[in-house]
Every structure is written in C-alpha cells, then in structure tokens.
Design a protein that fits this description.
The complex is a heterodimer of chains A (372) and B (343). Chain A is mostly helical and 372 residues long. Chain A contains 15 helices and no strands. By secondary structure, chain B is α/β, with parallel strands linked by helices. Classes of the chains: A mainly alpha (372), B alpha/beta (343). The A-B interface holds A 73-75, 86-87, 89-90, 93-96, 98, 156, 158, 216, 219-220, 223-224, 226, 228-229, 231, 234, 311-314, 316, 320-321, 323-330, 332-334, 336-337 and B 33, 46-50, 53-60, 83-88, 90-91, 94-95, 97-100, 184, 191, 207, 210-214, 319-321.
C-alpha cells in the first residue's frame, strides 16, 4: 500500500487579497454599503475642498513668530502667528504686572505638580495629595497672586487675566459645584420637608435663569443693592455666580445617579445599622457617582467653556484678552482677529479634550460590571 | 445729666458748623474717597484702538486713558495711581452710579437723555466723533452726495443705520443697504466687495481701515453726518469732583493752547506770560479751590502731557489709526476744542 499520506502540513495559503489588510479595512469601514460608499466619496471631496486652503492658511502661508506685522499685512499672508507670539503673555496673564509673572508661574507649576499624581490612580499618598490640591493650593494661589503678605506687592484681581483667570474660574466652579451638587441632590431626596423644599427651590431657581443673567445680576444689580462704597470683588462675584449655577445642574445629574440605585441598596445599608451619612458615603454615592461620570464630566466641560461668558461683565478671561488683543494697533492686519480666535479655540480644545479622555479612562477603571 | 447732654449737643452742633464752613470751600465725597483709597478707579472700554486698549506691555493706553491719568496726576502727582475697570456698554452707567468707578472714560456719547436722566454728568468732549463713510479709492467717489444707489454695508438696529437713512432721505439720495447683525460681518462684507460703502463712526472707520491689507485703497469721505461727542462722565451730585474732572480736561486744552507740553513745562515755569504763570501755579492759586495743590496743572502736563500730545500719540496721523485733528483741533486752528480761561 502506497497511500498518499502527507507527512507535513501543507503551507497555509494567504487569504484572498480582498479580505485582508488595507483593502479589507477600506471595504469594511468605508465602502461596506452603497450608502457608505456615497458618504465616503462626499466626505473625501469635502476634505479635498476644505483641507488644502485650511493647511495653507494655518501652516504654509502663515507668518510664524519672528515675522513682522508687515509680513502679516501682505494680501496673501495666512494666519498671523507672529501676533500670537508677540502678545502671548497678555493672553496667558492678562494685565498681571510683567515683573511679577513668576507668581502665576509658580501657581501653574504647583497646580501641574499636584494634579498629575492626583490623576494617576497608582501614585501614592492620595490623601495628602488631595488635601494639598483642594485645600492648600487655593490658599497659596490667593496669597501668591493677590499679594499683600510676606512683602509681596498687592495685585488686585482686576489685573488678573487671560488663561490664568479662565483656569481659576473653572477650578473654583468645578471644585465647588461637585460637593454642593451632591448635597443638593441628597437634600432634594430627603424626607425632611424643609430641606427638601429649600433644595428643590434652589435648584429650580438657578436652572431657570441663563448664566448670562446670573452674571449680569452679580455684576450690575448687586452693586445697586449694596451700600455705596462697599464693593465686593468683581471676580469673586463671578466665581460665586458660576459655582452656584453649576451646582444646580450638578445636583440634577447626581440625582439621576441616585435614582438608578435600587431601593434594596438603601435598605441593605439600613439593615446593617449604618447611619444616614455612612449609608450614603459608603454604599449609595460610590455607585451613583460612578453611573453619572459622563454627565458630570459633561458639566465640567460645559463649565470650562461657559467661563468665557464672564467676558461680558468685563472680566478678562482668555477669550476677552483675545478680543482686547484685536485692538492692538501695533499688529493691525487682516487676519489678526481670526488668528486670535483660532488660538483660543485650540486652547479650549486642548483642555476640554483632555478632560473628556481622562473621564473615559476613569470610567473604564471604575467599571465593575454594570456597563452595558 | 441734663447738662452733660446739653454739652454733647453743643459740641456736636459746633462740629457740624465747623464742617459745613469747611464744606463751603471744597466738599467732595468722591475726592475724599479717592484720596483715602489712594487711586482713581476709571471705567474704560474692553479695547477700542486709540481710546483705551492694552498696549504692548499689557498696560492700558489711549486718549481716554490719558484723561484718567491726568486726573490721577492732578490729585496724587502720580499719573499711575489709576485702576481700570473694563466695562461693557450695558453696564457702564450702573457701574458709575453704584460707585464702582469714579470716572467713566469709555467712548461715551454725550446726549441729552443720558445727561439728564441717568444721574450722571458729562465733563466735556474729549473727542468729537461722528458717522462717516468709507469707499474704495478706485471708485473715484469724493463726496457722500455721490453715493445715491450705492450698496451700503450697515449694522442693523443701530443709530448708524438710522443716521444714514435720515441723511439719504434729507438729500434725496437712493438708500440701498446690505444689512448685517454684527460689526465684524459688516467689515468682512465690505472687504469682500459685497457692497461699495461702509459706514460707522469715523474713528472706527479709520481703525478698521488700518487693518485692511492695503489701507491706501480706501478713502474716508469728508462728510460727517452725525454728532457723536465722546467724553468722560462722573456721578451727578458731587460738584467738587465734577469741577476737578472738568478743569483737568480744560487744563489739557489750555496747555496746548499756551504751547506748554511735557517736554518744556519746566522751562515754562520761568515764562513771563501771565496765562502760563496762572496755569502752572506760579502766580495765583487755582488748585486749592478744587481741593488740590497749587501745581495741579503742572503735574498733569509734566506727567501726562497736553491734549495735543495725547492725541498725536494715540489717534493722530502718525499712529495706525491715523485720524487728522479735524473738529478736535483747537478753536484757533479751525477745530472746536476750547477751554475757558484759567483766571
């Protein structure tokens, strides 16, 4: 018997060309159905239409730092990055005295040093780190930026500006609105009628007015009610206004999370003999907050962008410094304003995108099987 | 007991008479407050080129900022004793009446209703502005009366629109507008050639023109069709401070008229001209009745300069804004800026 028995495996043939590699990817992702094909072609045409002029404007024909205002004034010139370079300090620090720039710089550095380990789940000393970031940093910031102590020259808040103010408002509003929002949400679910009514009234009041109205009220109406001469710091007024406003929204998002927790969880906690705060702190809130991370981060991102509204009450946040920068006669050129706005958009995007990515990371990390 | 009360009442009465006797010379709650806090709080724009805008060193500068510096120089002998509050046009008057600022120097048009109904006082006219027209030089138009039927880019719902409509109707010209809701859009449309004419206040026209790629390709027509006197404003009811504000403005003009500038003010101290002697406090004392020192105007001129210096530095022909003096020249040079004599 001399049967044909193979002693070794035949080499595997490569898969058909059309089912692997780039072509497969293209077929699956771009040309899967006739609709997809049409959309792909339309999309490609759109990119071809918009892309080259955009690249030309932003990059190839742009005037880079080192260029002069004459370069920017040429008809064919693109974005005037030289102008951003020249006024960069103004966009970051506003009217802060140039000799004192080291003070905001120290604050920026401290904030960065503290937030990085705080954001990394594996970094040690979380409690100390959190205390430093949430309690010590605000105090240091106020002392260092405001001055008046330790021989530091006082710098009133009307000289703070630019990205510095945008970050301060976001920091305060984000840090203030989360705990306030949690308390309000718990209060709204409370069995005590007085607390429940007060919290509900507070939330509904703040949700029912636009942020612009709140800011106008804080900056225009409030001084009329106060006795003449007593003036509360304008930045402080805006900070309080934005924080209270955000906390109302935060409360409703967190209430959504609380409602998702089955009644059994509350009862189980009670049957273990836990008090109200223990029950909330150890059982209900950890689950509820996890459910609503996307909602909370949504509010944070919206809040960060909403800080630009303070420009209408004359506070020089990032957007307002950029608008004021367009009145710089030394850089008068056709694309001065546009370049400024693009710069602002880039900065806002960087911050908002980072927040969104970090929240996705946290969601994955905290995912314990509820995710659908 | 009765006697003690009586003494207290007497003492209080005496105190009252004493303070009211003082008050006869100078009472200004605002001035006292300013002196106590050590600076003048000045309301400015959020950035209008030439009038109030952050300069290359991130410091407020401009014609109207110089006015605030002049007031500070008169009060403190220090032109930098000013803090600035950028205000939007909606909140400017409230900020003033609520006492958040001492002086509003923010391209504010002096109108009767504002002067009489808002509890504020206009100090004078720092800058005579008015609505003008800009056209492309290539079109060869030399007068606004040639604009019949031309497409005019305009911001809707503004007095600019109403002024232009009035002017065209009064001169029987055909009024043809392209309307936008935003000032930036208006400029863009004019630049892109969607209309032939762009109209707004002449100072803004000049500022916008200098942003164009080729400013020389555009002309501002000579006709000014509206009155927009821009001036500093103070709260009503404090005549002492109003006097300081008003005479600071006059001192700037008087200094220009007498040829006293920041560069020659020290030599001028030795001048024989009695008007200069009075202005600089060499002869007579015009400062004390204001609650200031004798050399108040000297300090203004030394630290800030006269009106012409500020004008040339911030909005004059040599700046990017490039506005000729026009109406803002002194009365003897064909303008209408005029200071009553200091005597």
């Amino acid at each position: 018997m001399n049967a044909q028995v193979r002693t070794e495996m035949a080499p595997a043939l490569p898969p058909p060309r059309r089912t692997s590699g780039l072509i497969l990817w293209l077929r699956q992702n771009l040309f899967a159905t006739p609709t997809d094909t049409v959309l792909t072609i339309v999309g490609a045409l759109f990119i071809l239409w918009v892309g080259p002029p955009l690249v030309e404007f932003l990059l190839t024909k742009a005037v880079w730092p080192g260029g002069t205002v004459e370069d920017c004034r040429i008809e064919a010139a693109g974005a005037c990055w030289a102008y951003i370079g020249a006024r960069f300090n103004f966009f970051i620090y506003g009217f802060y005295p140039i000799a004192e720039y080291w003070r905001p710089n120290v604050v920026f550095a401290l904030a960065a040093l503290l937030i990085v380990p705080l954001a990394m789940p594996k970094a040690p000393y979380k409690l100390i780190n959190a205390l430093l970031f949430f309690v010590v940093l605000p105090v240091v910031t106020v002392v260092l930026l405001g001055g008046g102590w330790f021989g530091l020259r006082p710098v009133p808040t009307d000289q703070w500006g630019g990205l510095l103010v945008t970050l301060i408002i976001s920091y305060v509003a984000i840090l203030g609105s989360l705990p306030l929002g949690i308390l309000l949400a718990l209060g709204r679910q409370s069995n005590l009628p007085v607390i429940k009514t007060l919290c509900t009234a507070f939330i509904e009041l703040w949700r029912a007015v636009p942020l612009i109205t709140v800011l106008f009220m804080a900056s225009i109406m409030l001084p009329l009610f106060l006795p003449q001469g007593t003036s509360i710091d304008k930045l402080l007024r805006a900070l309080v206004g934005v924080t209270l406003f955000a906390s109302a929204y935060m409360a409703e998002v967190i209430r959504g999370g609380l409602q998702a927790i089955p009644r059994g969880q509350y009862e189980a906690g009670a049957s273990l003999g836990l008090g109200y705060w223990q029950r909330m702190g150890f059982i209900v809130l950890p689950q509820a907050l996890k459910h609503v991370i996307p909602g909370i981060v949504n509010i944070f991102i919206a809040l960060f962008k909403d800080t630009s509204l303070v420009s209408i009450v004359g506070i020089f946040d990032l957007l307002n410094t950029i608008q004021a920068g367009t009145s710089d006669t030394n850089w008068f050129s056709p694309h001065q304003a546009v370049t400024g706005y693009i710069f602002a958009a880039i900065i806002y995007w960087i911050f908002c995108f980072s927040m969104s990515r970090y929240s996705m990371f946290m969601e994955r990390r905290l995912n314990t099987g509820h995710k659908r | 007991m009765m006697k003690t009360l009586f003494t207290v009442a007497m003492a209080a009465g005496l105190g009252l008479t004493a303070s009211s006797a003082l008050a006869q010379t100078v009472t200004s709650a605002t001035l006292d407050a300013i002196k106590a806090k050590g600076y003048v709080q000045c309301g400015v724009t959020g950035g209008v080129p030439g009038f109030s805008a952050p300069d290359a060193n991130n410091v407020w500068a401009g014609l109207e900022v110089d006015y605030c510096r002049a007031v500070a120089a008169a009060i403190f002998n220090d032109a930098e004793a000013v803090r600035y509050t950028p205000l939007t046009s909606q909140e400017r008057f409230t900020a003033l009446s609520a006492g958040e600022i001492d002086i509003l120097s923010r391209t504010t048009t002096w109108t009767m209703s504002r002067d009489t109904q808002l509890g504020i006082k206009f100090v004078g006219t720092m800058f005579y502005d008015g609505q003008g027209f800009m056209v492309r030089a290539a079109d060869g138009i030399t007068s606004a009366l040639d604009l019949s039927g031309a497409a005019i880019c305009i911001e809707s719902g503004t007095t600019t629109e109403l002024n232009a409509a009035d002017y065209f109707a009064a001169n029987s010209l055909e009024f043809n507008t392209v309307v936008f809701v935003d000032q930036d859009e208006v400029v863009k449309a004019y630049e892109d050639g969607r209309c032939d004419v762009y109209t707004t206040d002449s100072s803004a026209l000049a500022a916008e023109r200098s942003k164009f790629a080729d400013p020389a390709a555009h002309v501002i027509l000579p006709e000014i069709i509206s009155k927009e006197p821009l001036g500093p404003v103070v709260r009503q009811g404090d005549d002492g401070f109003f006097n300081i504000a008003r005479w600071t403005y006059f001192a700037l003009l008087e200094a220009e008229e007498l040829g006293v500038s920041s560069t020659n003010v020290d030599e001028m101290l030795a001048s024989d001209n009695p008007a200069i002697k009075r202005l600089l406090g060499v002869e007579g004392d015009f400062g004390t009745p204001l609650g200031l020192t004798k050399d108040w105007a000297y300090q203004i001129i030394k630290l800030v300069g006269n009106y012409s210096e500020s004008y040339e530095k911030h909005v004059g022909p040599s700046t990017a804004i490039g506005l000729a003096r026009g109406l803002n020249a002194l009365w003897r040079d064909g303008g209408i800026q005029y200071s009553p004599p200091i005597r």
